[in-house]
Each structure stands twice: as structure tokens, then as C-alpha cells.
Amino acid sequence: MVKRQKKNDNTIKKFNELYISTRKKYIKQKGGQYSTFNKYEHSSALTLSDWMLELHLNGSETYGVFNANTVNKFITFDVDYANDQPMARWATLKLIDVLESEFNIRSKDIHVSFSGSKGYHVDLFFDEPIKADDAVAFYQRVIATADLPSNNIEFRPTYKQAVKLPLGIHQKTGARCWFVDRNTLEPIESLDYLDGVEPMDHSLILDALIDLTPEQEAEFKQIKERTDVNVTVVSESQAFEKVTEILTAGQLLRSNTRHETTVLLATFCNSQGYEQEDAIGIIMETLWNTPREYFSKNSTPEFWQSEAERIVKYAYERNYQLGNADRPITIYRSEMLAVLNVGTFRQKQVAYAMLVTSKRYGSTFYLTLATAMKMTGASKPTVSNAIKKLVEVGFIEYVRKREVDIGRSRDLGRPLYKPNQYRILIEKPKSDEKSIEVLPADNLVDVAYLLCDSSDIKGAVGRREYDNRWSR
Fold first, then answer.
1. Would 253 be classed as within a structural domain?
2. What's the rounded Cα separation, in Å, for the pair 365 and 420?
3. Best mean pLDDT range from 26-30, 233-237, 377-381
4. Is the pLDDT of residue 5 over 50?
5. Within-domain flag for 221
6. What does the pLDDT look like over 176-202, one tens digit per residue?
7. Are 159 and 237 contained in the same domain?
8. So what's the pLDDT on residue 236?
9. Does 177 fall in a domain?
């Protein structure tokens, strides 16, 4: 039997490579209506064949495709302003500009086609399929960044909503859905457009979900540089003033800084040893407390939540640090004597951890149990009891204790508490008293002997504790 030769073999090959994730589910346009064919549900339905794609290119039939349910091998931004062609052009050009300038997508990787009516399809093709949820999250972030209405620029394809393939004939208007020049939106009247198209690196999409834009990255780099251990104390103080201001205000400090603030707080929380859930809680509390006008029109709490979860996960996996955790801090003799007099050795360790944390992050600070356990080597019950003791003896006080996060508790269907906040209550040291600079590797005992005499230590600790923990 002689094999029939198709006229558009190369374009059909590109359709298969770039667009088609499943042949068993597709749509066919007839007039202005679309019919869905699903072989998964109806065994009698035909699969989408290369000959159907040939008919599509010939203009006699028009087809569209779904994604593969859980993954997308491409994204289409479906720009549709039904009765406003100028607006559709403006929105499409703005979308292209945002993809290039804000998300580092190369111009040659952005492919635009006429929808056949009054809109456009903006396509991005990936060298490897990405999770459908990640594709949607990327779309949401682009739309929010571009400040464009999602009801006029829809995400395609999903497993329930297909997208019409380009280069065919719109069966209602009779217009050919040519690809267009991405700068002028003038049609490129060639069925061979896809021949030279190669898919882009899919990791750019995944990175865009959690990385900074170039402007934000530059600003964040400045923050990290200002907190480098080799710069001046004044510069470090100025840098962490921003974190302190955000936490004190409990909201964004200026409009359109949601992403920057999320990254900053995620990094701060990782630096200080919070659990990821606590970090997400701090970020969401800050965003919920921010006036709505600080956000773009299409920015939603659901999107904030997904971004917070994604950015926190990324910051923790990459171990983002503000640079503050390793810088030397100054401890004074009177402060060490206050630590020595709080109670048991473990309680002294926790008190020292509290003191160090307050030096690094401000007079009002967070210290999670996980961080305190890491700093002291003590168990969770021991740390919990030590904190209670430190409150009893007046070394610290609670600024916030077991406060319910109402919004997130309602979302989760269970009580969720905000991280506790503390404040050191001991007297401020005198400027002329003995002091030393200490690093994270310096432990309580070593620092105590550098600041205090043996008689001071013996007078503050019990005989057994001294013999077991302090004698040299």
C-alpha cells in the first residue's frame, strides 16, 4: 500500500513536538462552537492523527489540544478582548514586554499568533514538561506583575480547557490564525513558521516562580552586601533596620514590595532557624495586615500564600542567609553576670542564646524552640522549661505569647499560633565596662571566662555545676 504524503510534514512534526501532550482528548471547531472528543471516556472516539493536523493546516477542519492533566509542555496566554481590538493589541504587547523585561524570557522564545477573531495567543514552549500547578503559578505571577486582568488573559491549556492550534482557519470568522511579528503584531503569512522554533529551557519558568526579578535581585544583593561581615557595623545596622521596621510595622513598608518582602523575611527566618511553617506564618501575617491598596489589582491572598510557600521552600533549600548570622557581636561583663545568675546550666545556655539573638536581630526578637535547641544542644522540654524560668526571674519577657493566627487557622481548619516574641529585660551595660567580640562558634563557658574571673563564676553557680561544667 502506498503511504499518502502530507504536504506539511515539518509543521505537523512541530505540532507533535511543541503542542500535543495527548492524542486521546482534543477539540474540534465547527462554526463558532467547539466539540470535545475524549477516547478516555468514549472508546469509539478517534484519536487525534497527523491527517487531522493536515486537515487543520489545509483549513478544512480546525482542532485544539488539552494539556496532559498533570503537566504542561507549553503555556498559552489567551488574550481576548472580544469587542476591543486596540486593547487586545496593547495588552499583548505589554505582556510580551513583561515576559522579556521582568521574567528574562528571550524574545525568540515568545511566539504570538492571531486567535482568528480579535485576540492573540502568546505561547511559550518548554524543553521538558513542567507541573501544571507550576505552569498556572507562573501565569498568575506574570499577570500580577503586568497588572493585566485575568478575565481577559486566560491560562491555556488545562485538562478541562483546550486551546486552538495556530495556523488553521477560524471556522466562524474565516480568518487564518497566522503567527505574527512579536514587535508589530503584523501577520507572518507562512505555514512554515514553526520549522525554526525550538523549546526554551523549562527551568527559567521554575526559577521565575521563586527567584527575584533583576531589579529585586539587585536590591537584595545590596542588602546582602551591606550585611557582609567585612563591612562596617553602621552598614549592618542600616540593613537590618529594614527587617526590624517590617516586623515592627507588621505590614509592607511601601506598595508593590510583596515579593521583595517575602524573600527578605524568608531569608531572615532561615537565618534565625525558624521552621518553614513559622516563616510562612510571619510572611502571611505581614501581608494580611497590609492595606489592600499596597498590592496590584489582581494580587490575591491565595497567590500570596502559594508564593510564600514556594519562596520559603526555596530559601531554605538554598540556605539563603542575610549574612548577619556569622558577624561578631559584643557581649559585656554585666550581661554575662546576668546570664550566670539565672538558674541551671541549661537555663544559662538558653539565656545566652537569647542574649546573642537579641544582639543580632533587635531588642524584640523571635527565638523558636528549634533554634534554641540547635544553639544549646538541649532537648525541647528542657528549652521550654528554661524559657519559663527566664521569664520568672525577669531575664526576658513575652512580647507575644501563643497568639492565634486567626486567618491561617481558619484556612487550615485547626488552631495555628504565631511565633512567640521576646524582649531582654536586663540592664543596659555601661559603655566603659569590659567587653569582647564573640562569634557563633564561641560557647557560653569560653565567653564567661573571657569576661569574668573564676571567683565570679564560682559565686554564681553551684558547687556541683561548677565541678561538672565550669572547672578548668
1. yes
2. 9
3. 26-30
4. no
5. yes
6. 999 999 999 999 999 999 998 999 988
7. no
8. 40
9. yes
